[in-house]
Amino acid sequence: MNNDNYCDSLTELHGQALRNLARVKGQIGGIQKMIGDGSYCLDVLTQIHAARSALDSVSAALMQNHLESCCTEAIKAEDKELALKRITEFSQCCKKFIKS
After folding, report:
1. How far is CA 68 from CA 18, 22, 51, 53, 90, in A?
2. CA Rg value for the chain
3. Using one digit for the tens of pLDDT, what is the confidence trace for 50-81?
4. Which of 27, 59, 81, 82 has the smallest count of CB within 10 Å of its CB?
């Protein structure tokens, strides 16, 4: 695809990310049910922590993939403008994770 905001590296990672996100979706549904059923607060918090950890794992894998594919490809292509854009975007993304 010719859009420079499109990730051409449709790797095994994306399939794994989708499977993990489906699991998180199930966890969120379970958390909603627990709250609706009046489950013990600490049990609910434990499940929230598990869902967040799963999301963090997906985020970390996608960030690594971005560096290894999107940034690297722009550098290898000697497209300085695109490489700088990719690296700047990555830096801004990292700042968001540091703040949270």
Report:
1. 19, 25, 26, 22, 12
2. 18
3. 999 999 999 999 999 888 888 888 899 989 99
4. 81
CA dist 91 and 85 (Å) reads 10
For 27, 53, 81, the CA distances from 15, given in Å and listed in that order, are 19, 18, 30
User: Is 0.90 surpassed by the pTM of this model?
Assistant: no
SS3 content of the chain, % helix, strand, coil (to 5): 80, 0, 20
User: How many angstroms separate the CA atoms of 40 and 88, rounded?
Assistant: 44
Please tell me the distance from the alpha carbon of residue 15 to that of residue 38, in angstroms, as a whole number: 35
**For the chain, which domains are there?**
12-99 (1.20.58.1000)
Q: Tokens 């966890």 label which residue?
A: 27
SS3 6: coil
